[in-house]
Amino acid sequence: LLETAVIEQASTPAQKSAVSEYLASVAKEKLELAQALRERANTTHGGKVISQNNEKKELLRRAEILEKEAEKYKKVSMGQALELKQVASN
Question: What is the pTM of this model?
């Protein structure tokens, strides 16, 4: 919701550039966290097999959600960058 407001309010090329960079950064952070969750899901640390399997499933589910969110941020960031290029060419 906050990001939507920031995107809609960005009107100058500098603001659009800043928003694009911010969204790209958020996407990168989400992908890094997803990767960390995937790595954690693939490590064993003792305990009951059922418990480990449930934790692994949960970590992989969270990683997938983060990757989907990152993709959304990336698309919006690219849209802002494209819009900025169009404004600059006019």
Answer: 0.77
